[in-house]
Structure formats: structure tokens, C-alpha cells
């Protein structure tokens, strides 16, 4: 490389942030980094010596000094300063450090994805936990990026709701999330959406897998890293489900694990065509970057392979409520042997339009999953499931200590174990009915278990959960 090319390269690319990604360094044995001018000096020296005989290999001292002076003087002018590609160099561009091409490309893709899912807000609310809640015009929310939904607007609330068996103690305030504690709310005509950050996506294994559950091979497989303590009903046609879910903040001991408690509405098989609609609360350090329990939704039409996502992280679920932010932290939570807190959730199929609606408490609609996104769930569900799920990565070579529910076994009961109460399903005539032919599943009962019962106050209920690793769960 001659000096004109070196100077030209720097002049043409000094303002290009991606030039650094392709400008490779040469590292010497003594860990010094070779600059452009130093390489040129080395070439001049080699050229000079190659043209001399062995008898004239000793260079005149004055010539060597002259070369050193020339090359050192042109370094700041003509040569781009090369910075070591260390971990410090990847922390940001404010110190003009350089990034490898793969890192730059990844960041460009992340920014493009953020632009896609973070819609322009008309107002932003700062939550005490650090979240930013964007108030987005309802017709601009991510759902309407879906090819089957593009150009549409949210539907009006369904007139007909599931009938019967509403409990008197379910008048829960909409203010059950940290971001709304200040009294601020999104204006009418907008929906609150938790803003996704670059750090959120960087915690995921890839952009494609961000906001998605790991693929579940079989619901009851002991070889799966997903472990459950659930009750379920099947064998009939179901048009919805309802329960009140006790909220805790279980300890999750690995970034790539989660602990959740939810309702599943299911159709299809556990192969590649499983359809699910899911809602509840979860603790997921990978998805949210903390250990707060958060209100969440999920859906898939192909057994978690390529479709669906959490919350509003892809197009699908259409939100209609301007006071509840899906993915935001829940407050208050339950504590051991003291006050208990639960949230009532209902998922049901609107008889008129066929969409699956999500209701919070008694009568507060959150939004809906359009029926035309599904295959099997387009008509009805064939299974309804309630309970807890954790991921056990065995990252330390033994069973995880990630907790389910309260982190205590079912036998400890009220104020100590987590619970679901008032379990019901919706039938073909939009009636809420108690569960029949209930099945239990605790696929690792020494780690997490379940105990079901019935009484006049809680109807069908169960306690569930556990600490994970213990003397009986190695």
C-alpha cells in the first residue's frame, strides 16, 4: 500500500462508522498494534534492503532516522488510528472505538427491529421500575403490521360476555401495575406499550428468537427442560377459561430460565400444529432484564416453531385498553405468611365475531386475538390448562433452583403456597361452568407439586409450586 492510498482511504472513510468494521489490525508479538504508517515504513525498509547486496545490508544511521521521522510525522495526518478489538471497544461508539463487521451488522438489524416494533408515541410515561410506557395510537399498534390485519382498526367491545358465576370479590382495580401508580394514563384512542430497548434484544440468543418461548417438544416429556405443575381438562369443546391467579415474585436463578403462572387455551396436537392462547404473569430475566412478576400474553399456531410471541412484540394480539400495559410489572405482590394478591383473568370466544377476548378482573377488556390467525382455535379449544411452568437449563450440571409460584410446595397452603381459584370454562352457549373430569400433572413432583380441592368460596382451586432443587430434587 503506498502512502497516497493510505491517505485516500482515511479521507474517504473517516466519517463512515462501518469503515472500522472492515479495517483490520495487525497485532505484533509484543501486543502493539501496527498503524498504517508503520506498515509503510516496514515496506520501505524491506524494499531498500532487498535492493542492496549482502555487503551493504547495514543501513546508514541517518537514513533510518529519516525514515522514522517521516513515518511518525505522517501517522496522525494520513493514517487511521487502529484500536484494539477488546471488550472495551464494543461498549459504544462514543470513544470512537471500532467494532467487527458482525457486531455492526447485528446492531443495524437490532435497530431496524426496534423501529418496527416501537411505534411513535403521542405520550411517554416513566415507570418507577425504569420501564418506558409509550402511548401509541390504537390503529398504529404492532398488531396491524400482520398481513391479515393490515389497514384494520380495533373492534368495539363485544356486547355479550360469558354468563354466570361471577364472584363478588373480583372488582379488582385496573391500577395493578407499577407504571400507573402515579395516576398517569394513556389518552383515549391510544394503547400503552412497554418500550423495547436494545438491551432487551441483546439478552436474547438471536433477534429471531427474541420475544418467543423456546420450542416445547411434548407437554409431559420428562426429557424437556420445561417443567409443569398444572391441572387440565380435555375431551370436550371449550370456548374459554377463567381463573384468579395468585401473584408472587419467585426467584429465577439463571438468565435463560423463567417462572410463570398462566391459563392455556389449546387446540391441535403437540407436534407442529399446536394452537395456544396464553395469559398470566411471569418472571423472565432474559425478556425483561429483571425479576419483577409481569402481566403477559402469548400465542402460537405452530407449536412455538415460527409463529407467535409474548405481549405485543409481534403482530397478532390487538389491544383495546388504554390503562393496562401488557408486559409491565405487577404491583402489589403476595408475600409469605402475609397479605395475598391475585388477578382475575378470562379468555373467551366472542359468539358473534369469533375472536378470542382477554378480560381482566370483572369486566375490564384488555384486547383480543383475531380468529383468522389460527387454524384449530378458529372454531374452539380442545383443552384448557391452568398452572405453573418453569425452564430448567441445568446450566450448573444439576436441577435449577428457580422457584415456581411462591417457591413453596402445595402442602403448605394459604399465604404460603401459590394458588389458582374459581377455575371455570366457557361452553358452546357462552356459559361459565365448573371444571369436570380434572387431570393433574406435576412432571417433577419432587421439585414442584400440586394439590387440588373444591369449596363453596373458591369453587375449584389448587395450590402448586416448589423450590426447585432440594434433597429430593438433585
UniProtKB/TrEMBL annotation:
Region (Disordered): 146-167
Domain Neprosin PEP catalytic, chain residue ranges per copy: 220-474
PROSITE patterns reported in the protein's UniProt record: NEPROSIN_PEP_CD
Domain of life: Eukaryota
The name this protein goes by in its record: Neprosin PEP catalytic domain-containing protein
Originating species: Clitoria ternatea
Lineage: Eukaryota, Viridiplantae, Streptophyta, Embryophyta, Tracheophyta
Amino acid at each position: 500500500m503506498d502512502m497516497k492510498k493510505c491517505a485516500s482511504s482515511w479521507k474517504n472513510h473517516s466519517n463512515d462508522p462501518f469503515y472500522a468494521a472492515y479495517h483490520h489490525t495487525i497485532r505484533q508479538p509484543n501486543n502493539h498494534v501496527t498503524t498504517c504508517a508503520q506498515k509503510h515504513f516496514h515496506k520501505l525498509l524491506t524494499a531498500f534492503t532487498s535492493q542492496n547486496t549482502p555487503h551493504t545490508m547495514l543501513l546508514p544511521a541517518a537514513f533510518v532516522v529519516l525514515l522514522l521521522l517521516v513515518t511518525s510525522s505522517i501517522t496522525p495526518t494520513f493514517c487511521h488510528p487502529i484500536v484494539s478489538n477488546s471488550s472495551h471497544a464494543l461498549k459504544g461508539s462514543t470513544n470512537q472505538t471500532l467494532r467487527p463487521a458482525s457486531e455492526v451488522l447485528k446492531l443495524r438489524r437490532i435497530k431496524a427491529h426496534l423501529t418496527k416494533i416501537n411505534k411513535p408515541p403521542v405520550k411517554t410515561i416513566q415507570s418507577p421500575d425504569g420501564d418506558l410506557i409509550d402511548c401509541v395510537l390504537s390503529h398504529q399498534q404492532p398488531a396491524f403490521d400482520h398481513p391479515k390485519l393490515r389497514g384494520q382498526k380495533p373492534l368495539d367491545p363485544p356486547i355479550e360476555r360469558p354468563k354466570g358465576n361471577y364472584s363478588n370479590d373480583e372488582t379488582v382495580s385496573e391500577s395493578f401495575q407499577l407504571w400507573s401508580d402515579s395516576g398517569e394514563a394513556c389518552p383515549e384512542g391510544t394503547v400503552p406499550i412497554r418500550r423495547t430497548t436494545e438491551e432487551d434484544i441483546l439478552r436474547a440468543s438471536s433477534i429471531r428468537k427474541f420475544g418467543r418461548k423456546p420450542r416445547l417438544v411434548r407437554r409431559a416429556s420428562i426429557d424437556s427442560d420445561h417443567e409443569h405443575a398444572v391441572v387440565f381438562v380435555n375431551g370436550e369443546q371449550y370456548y374459554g377459561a377463567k381463573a384468579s391467579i395468585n401473584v408472587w415474585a419467585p426467584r429465577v436463578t439463571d438468565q435463560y430460565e423463567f417462572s410463570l403462572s398462566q391459563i392455556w387455551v389449546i387446540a391441535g396436537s403437540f407436534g407442529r400444529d399446536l394452537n395456544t392462547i396464553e395469559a398470566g404473569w411471569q418472571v423472565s430475566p432474559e425478556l425483561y432484564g429483571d425479576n419483577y412478576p409481569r402481566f403477559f400474553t402469548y400465542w402460537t399456531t405452530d407449536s412455538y416453531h415460527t409463529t407467535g410471541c409474548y405481549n405485543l412484540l409481534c403482530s397478532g394480539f390487538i389491544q383495546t385498553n388504554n390503562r393496562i400495559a401488557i408486559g409491565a410489572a405487577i404491583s402489589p405482590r403476595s408475600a409469605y405468611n402475609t397479605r395475598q394478591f391475585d388477578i382475575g383473568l378470562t379468555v373467551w370466544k366472542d359468539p358473534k365475531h369469533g375472536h378470542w377476548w382477554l378480560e381482566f378482573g370483572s369486566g375490564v377488556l384488555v384486547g383480543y386475538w383475531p380468529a383468522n390467525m389460527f387454524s384449530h382455535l378458529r372454531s374452539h379449544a380442545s383443552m384448557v390448562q391452568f398452572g405453573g411452568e418453569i425452564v430448567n437449563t441445568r446450566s450448573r450440571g444439576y436441577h435449577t433452583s428457580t422457584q415456581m409460584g411462591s417457591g413453596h410446595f402445595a402442602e403448605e397452603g394459604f399465604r404460603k403456597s401459590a394458588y389458582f381459584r374459581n377455575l371455570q370454562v366457557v361452553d358452546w352457549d357462552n356459559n361459565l361452568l365448573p371444571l369436570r373430569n380434572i387431570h393433574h400433572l406435576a412432571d417433577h413432583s419432587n421439585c414442584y407439586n400440586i394439590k387440588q380441592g373444591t369449596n363453596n368460596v373458591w369453587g375449584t382451586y389448587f395450590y402448586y409450586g416448589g423450590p426447585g432443587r432440594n434433597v429430593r430434587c438433585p
